[in-house]
Fold this protein.
Amino acid sequence: MKLLVAISQTPETTARIAFKDGGTAFDPTGVNFIMNPYDEWYSLVRALELKEEKGGTVTVIHCGPVANEVTIRKALAIGADDAIRVDMEPDSAYAVAQQIAAHATTAGYDIIFTGKETIDYNGSLVAGMVAGLLNLPFISHASKMVFSGDKAIVTRDIEGGTEEIEVAVPFVISASKGMAEQRIPNMRGIMSAKTKPLQILAPVAAESLAKHVEFRVPPAKTAVKMVDPANMDELVRLLHEEAKVI
Amino acid sequence: MIMVFAETQDGKIKRSALESVYYGSKVAAAQGTTCAALVLGQVEDGGKLGAYGANEVWQVNDAKLASFDSQTYAEVIAKVAADKQANVIILPDSSNGKSLTGLVAVKLKAGVLSGVNKLPEWKDGKLYVERALFSGKAFASCRIDSSNAVLSIAGNTLKPVAEGSEVAVTSLTVDVPDAKTKVLSVNRSVGIVPLPEAEVVVSAGRGMKDPSNWGIVEDLASVLGATTACSRPVADSGWRPHHEHVGQTGIAIRPNLYIAIGISGAIQHLAGVNSSKVIVVINKDPEAPFFKAADYGVVGDLFEVVPRLTEAIKKLKSAGH
Ligand SMILES: Cc1cc2nc3c(=O)[nH]c(=O)nc-3n(C[C@H](O)[C@H](O)[C@H](O)COP(=O)(O)OP(=O)(O)OC[C@H]3O[C@@H](n4cnc5c(N)ncnc54)[C@H](O)[C@@H]3O)c2cc1C
């Protein structure tokens, strides 16, 4: 199977989020960047497992500047065979999706994987856009995928439960928790990643159509009001009269 | 004109659809135009969308829409939107909504913003709207740079109010493509409000010690009409179903009231719940990090505090509130 995994780079889950230039740009000072967890733990690892089961190749694609190559090398260390970096600032979901689709349109992938969302922009848009541009079936928020003959049986998270869906390749899938278990790269993987092929592509002309103009952090929470554990009538009164939520 | 995709489930309008339509009607009012709701497949109660602000309700009732396929649904939504020249297309930011939003935007070549949490504004003829990002640790004002826009609405953005009256459902004929995916089964717990739509959520963590202790959590949820949730280790150890897991790796929610019981308040847990309007934390450890994110805190043993809270709420409810 020929598998493509789109990976993105995000601030670490515990990073302090701040903005600069009058709130128009993310402030990376002191922030550690990681591979987006949904891409790394679930989507990439499920692709690698599938390659181990069925043979084939796993290619990772990343849209971003040269500084992000550490993230690409990590994906190669975990086990991807080769990588593509589209040299650009990933400034919107649509711009990224157009690059992935432009590469994939002639490459003949069986499955294109993404994470269910990135933990920075929380957009959940790229996978659907790629599917739309390539006119491929799309299953989002998949927590499990098994093969039965040439058909994949995918479990998708829905409100309050799951749905099982049958689909034949080629298709686009976005992965949520459950698809696979995180893999830690070993020394051999890290060494071999250094020499695995990394192709740099110039971006195709792309539009954005939507822009994040100004960022801000939410106002600090007012101090917590402590309530005596013996007096739950008081908590109920506060929730009813002050907060007006019950 | 504004078009809203109104989600249905088992032939009935979903609660989230009332909110999407109500939101659409407010956008339409601001733009001096009308709002239409589109329902796909069979529906019994489509007319009630009129009460929540739809001037028209359109239905495409084709057997091919009986189960969900993202491409098929997106194709029909895009066709109707293009045909009717809708300039703002609104979807819910639900599971199906998340499957559709990117597809619909690409098909219409429209600028798109997902999970928006306020009504849009127009400056110099361009649509601006706000959304949360970094798992609720930041907000952004965003702009659409195309003549039409696709927006998906985060749950609990507006409280839908029935301000109008029912309208007749108009049937539309659309050429529906064949689905390339097939839904084999749907496993959904019935009779509960799904977490992303819940106004009150009662959530419990490892402090519960054992899954057999969940009765007190369920009792509290039941007097409040709340949906139950849990922390990640609780779902990972199979104490509670996976779909109850909230946080960075679970689902993100924004109820009016979130009650956290025996949850420490790790940053990855907060990422999924910190947009809640009011947070109550019950924890025996006064140093638990969750208190920093809470509006009301109770330091105490949950096994005593929770039943006491349930009784106090019963008292309030029996007093007629
Ligand atoms: C990348 C990443 C992603 C993650 N994603 C998520 C996520 O999506 N959601 C999530 O929840 N976690 C997530 N986690 C895990 C998170 O870091 C915490 O480990 C987890 O939230 C802790 O769960 P807990 O609060 O239930 O358990 P604990 O941290 O063990 O806390 C239990 C709490 O119960 C209290 N307690 C114990 N007994 C009692 C009693 N009798 N009465 C009152 N209080 C009592 C204790 O004081 C303690 O504060 C993630 C971690 C990582 C690294």
Summary: The two ends of chain B are 40 Å apart (CA to CA). The mean pLDDT of chain B is 96.
